[in-house]
Amino acid sequence: MATYRPTVSVAVPEFLLALLSETVAAKRGALVASQWAEFFPGAVIAIYRYDEQVAEWELLAHVGAGQPDEEVQPASLANVRTLTSPAVWSGSTLRLEQFAHLEIRKNVESLACVPLIHNGRFVAAIEIANFERRMETSEFAPLADLVHWCAVGLDSAIAYETERNNDYDSITRLTQLYDLERTFNSTLEMDKLLNIVPAKIRDILPCAAINLWMVQGEGLILAGRAGADPTLQPGAVLHGVQSIPGAVADSGKSIAVQNASDPRIVERVGQTGAQIRCILAVPVIAQGLLVGVIEAIDKHHEKPFTEDDLFFLTTISETTASALHNASLLEAERKVEILETLVEVSREITSTLNLDRVLGTVVNGPQKIMEYDRAAIALESMGKLQIKAISGKHEVVAADPGVKALRELLQFCSVSESETYVVARNDQVEADDADTRSHFTEYFKQSGSRAWYCVPLADDQGRLGLLSFESKNPDFLTDAHFELIRVLAAQATVAVRNASLYTETPFIGLLQPLQKKKRQFLALGKRQRTARITLAAAALLFLVFFPLPMRVAGTATVAPERKANIQAPFDGTVRRVLVREGDPIHRGEVLAEMEDWEYRSAVVNAEAKRDEALAKMNRALAMNDGAEAGIQRADSEYWQSELGLARERLNQSKLRSPVDGVISTPHIEDAVGRKLQLGDSFAEVVDTTHTSIDVAVDQTDLPLLQLGDSAAIKLEGFPTRKFHGEVVIVSPVATVAGDERVFMARVDVPNPDGAIRAGMQGNGKISTGWRSAGFVFFRGFGIWSWTKLWNWFGW
């Protein structure tokens, strides 16, 4: 048989230019395959590259019948990386598995592999499957230059792609690190952070599990986990240096164990039956101190941990250390805040013997550091439990259905001598017995609460009552809060006991001076007694019948000024601004004009259409064409309405002030040419004609106030002026001012010259009408006396 020798007809410059025009290895491979197909017509030409990382062949391109199966590795290329020149095999010597990757139904007459080598390095392989004839090795000698240029072209493309992929990997890793750092620093809650850290690390470093160990005393505690690690459960504690996390914590250096037979892995697996192939652990160090250990278990795809994985885990441990350090600082700050609150409440309740004040402080004070919805304190009196204080309320209304339900639940809890803690999650009440679940299920349904905590108030003399806290958040209490409440309950017991004893003794100190005064009066002469009685009667008549003006006084604060926001009525551009900052303006005055050529055109067009329709209607009427006249009349009415709309839009292009006032927008004149969207703010107008002044009124004076009462205001900035106004609003909710609660009476005061500015302070007096002199002089004493009597007798 004569030897077939292909004619080398390739135009090298054109082929090289085609290769250079492509930068992707797959496209260059397609050019190479197409070029070789010209020399071996009818054959299947496939270009493969070898991936060193996964030790597999990758199909770059192919030409000819049958698509090579990319899932099947070509057995024919098993030894091609050791070749330095083309090799040819006869079809009779080939086994079926050697070309099983080719999805063909013909017999292979011969199979050739051409190694592409550049600078002594294997680049790729050309596989040629011929179904018509047997190829000879000598056929490839004339193609040596083509083989060289193919090797050079593919090598440069593969190198380019490798460099590009490496750059992409670097950018991806930097992006991931940035995302991790941002995520870790997005919260300062330690509980959330312990779950976020392992989860985010596992997203970037795929493995069976990521464990986060935290230093606890002399050992480590498994504080967070993402994934599955059956060898240890969350909350497990390790001591000593025998374990891998313990060794890392002791040495402060990373450890990578890649052998499943390592004694430390064998001991850890123990009797669990689990399988661990490899472990990578790095220390978490913040400011030179060990915070914890990050542990990665079994990398995916049964691969070992690499230096890149160690570098990544070491890098992210620094970010983790910073985030954990910040979270620990927040926890420490919260503990300090809890202690400060406890000291403040303790000082408050021990500095007074006023029982109401003590009880109010106990239920309201912890709100600074606890997010509860309601706290209540109930005291036992004559065998009955009475609610004495509820957080956020000035008085307890016994007839209130919510108070009744609360009292019944407190009565139920009073049977127990210990604390009561009940929560509801997913509409399921977590309690030890069915009776408790039944009571709290009904109460939670009525009140909307999801957590309840109640502690008894008791000392060596017996039980005083109960202190309860409830919230709609089932996890509103932490361990620190439980400790706070227990300490608060102990202090409240002492304070309530002292205040209760004090309220029972005033009669002794009151009767003795009265008896002394009586003896002194009886010792006087008749004339002196008569004179004193007459003087007392005159004073009594004066107090009862002589009217005096009743005024309620309090500190005054000028409220923020009322503002009007001028917004764009449509999308457009500001054409002209007619005002500047500080200019006084009147209601309806034009502040600026927007580009309106479009709306002017719409007005002109609508007028023209209307006039045209009217003209047609008149012509139809002149020709006695009623139908056409009716159509044109409807058309003219339509365009008349469109004209009205167009004129309205044109009028809206002028931005006007809705109130009298002063321009407060800085540099408003620079808005010329500014593009505004519908609803965008253009300017603010401060209404200075009137101003509102809040006068703090004591809660005991609140019943005297009525809307429309006149008021006089003295401001510190104007010591010689007096401003007059009238009460327009009395706030329905109290405001805490020092250790008292006050209500704000809002007084509307004319301010034509704009002298009154927001934030000014002074004093205000509100006239509430005329009252008897006794009412004016002794009203405060009477309220105090009535309160004391009510506390003593408790009806």
Topology:
Layout: H1 12-20, H2 25-39, E1 44-51, E2 56-63, E3 87-90, E4 110-118, E5 121-130, H3 144-184, H4 190-204, E6 207-216, E7 219-227, E8 237-238, H5 244-251, E9 255-257, H6 263-269, E10 279-286, E11 289-299, H7 307-350, H8 355-364, E12 374-381, E13 384-390, H9 401-413, E14 420-425, E15 428-430, H10 434-447, E16 451-459, E17 462-471, H11 479-503, H12 506-522, H13 526-545, E18 547-558, E19 562-567, E20 572-577, E21 584-585, E22 590-594, H14 597-622, H15 626-652, E23 654-656, E24 661-663, E25 675-676, E26 681-687, E27 690-698, E28 710-715, E29 723-730, E30 735-737, E31 740-750, E32 761-772, H16 773-793
Antiparallel strand pairs: 1-2, 1-5, 3-4, 4-5, 6-7, 6-11, 7-8, 9-10, 10-11, 12-13, 12-17, 14-15, 14-16, 16-17, 18-27, 18-32, 19-26, 20-22, 20-25, 21-24, 22-23, 24-26, 27-31, 28-29, 28-32, 29-31, 30-31
Helix pairs in contact: 1-2, 2-3, 3-4, 3-7, 4-7, 7-8, 7-11, 8-11, 9-10, 13-16, 14-15
